[in-house]
Amino acid sequence: MALRQTIYILVIASALGLGLNLVSPNRVDFVGNWRDLHDGDGPILPPDVEPGDAPFIAVDVAQLDFNARAALFVDARDPEEFECGTIRGAINIPFEYLPEGDLGPYFDSVLSHLSKDERIIIFCSGEECDVSLHLARNLQALGYTDLAIFFGGSREWERFHLPIERRRQCDE
Amino acid sequence: MRRIVDNDHLTMAVRVVVGGVFVSASVYKIIDPGSFARSIWYYHVVPGSLINLLALVLPWVELAAGLGLMFGVLYRGAVVWVNFMTVAFIAAVTSAVARGLNIECGCFKAADDATGSAWQSLILDGALLLLILQLWFSRSRRWMCARK
Predict the structure, then answer these.
(1) CB contact under 8 A, A30 and B37
(2) Which CATH number among 3.40.250.10, 2.40.30.30, 1.20.1250.20, 3.40.50.720 corresponds to the domain A59-165?
(3) What number is the ipTM of this complex?
(4) Which of A6, A14, A29 sits opposite B52 (nearest CB)?
């Protein structure tokens, strides 16, 4: 009796949930595109990785650090892109706009609240941009030891509907 | 003890409370399955390809089971479902805490807006499970739309 009723409830719920999804304004795909934590996909890598580069992390690893507030997120894109939408709480170090010459004093002032062994996750837009990689190499050279590169960047972050901070509205 | 557990008024009150909790918990998930899918993903216990299916079906199971409890329709099945879902949720939160995931509950609100901690969820669900156990063992069948 209980088993039969349990199955009835499941059948009714499945019919309603799946059926109404076809006409709902908040429709979702029946098979979602969610990355498993240990699905072997691993992080997205740039084509020009060199030995000794900071480790590349997948979106779920970045998300774990984000939730645990265990890392400073650094957006390496230009200020305009940063203001249009970035990982919530990230700071902006626009790699292509950095001052000429010795970058040590600049980084030390921007990251003055951090010691050099605290975790920093660097990202840019996604696979097509490599400023995160170059910024990480510069920080490595200056003695920052716990760096990670989230190469999926803001696009992958947004694709997984993770928290985004927008300082102004921009056209896509 | 048996008389207390079987008390008609107590059983009816628990049916309304537990049923109400499941009905209210189902509403935002039915309205916004995408946000609920994200909440499920945060736990990293369900394979990615099954998350949306679960997000579409589970809230309706909650709603049907909640209404079943309150109105006494498909009652035994509803008791089995609320028991199973509560135990499964406690297991998921415990597993997330054990793995160091800083998850928000996402039980009644979209994950981004949720403020409850995992520990609060565990305490509330432990209390809910106690009430459900009363329903599990109670033989009271008064005030039901369908007696079976």
Answers:
(1) no
(2) 3.40.250.10
(3) 0.90
(4) A29
Given a cut of 90, whether residue B111 has pLDDT beyond it is no
Dist. CA A62–CA A152, nearest whole Å: 10
Sequence-ordered alpha helix ranges (H) in chain B: 2-5, 8-31, 33-43, 51-71, 75-98, 118-137
Over the stretch A64-89, which tens digit does the pLDDT of each residue have?
888 888 899 999 999 999 999 999 99
Do B52 and A28 count as a contact with CB atoms less than 8 A apart? yes
Q: How far apart are CA A128 and CA A159, in angstroms?
A: 16
Residues A50-59: tens digit of each pLDDT: 788 899 898 8
Q: Is residue B147 part of a domain?
A: no
Structure tokens, B11: 């059983």
Among the listed residues B74, B63, B85, the one whose alpha carbon sits nearest the alpha carbon of residue B132: B85
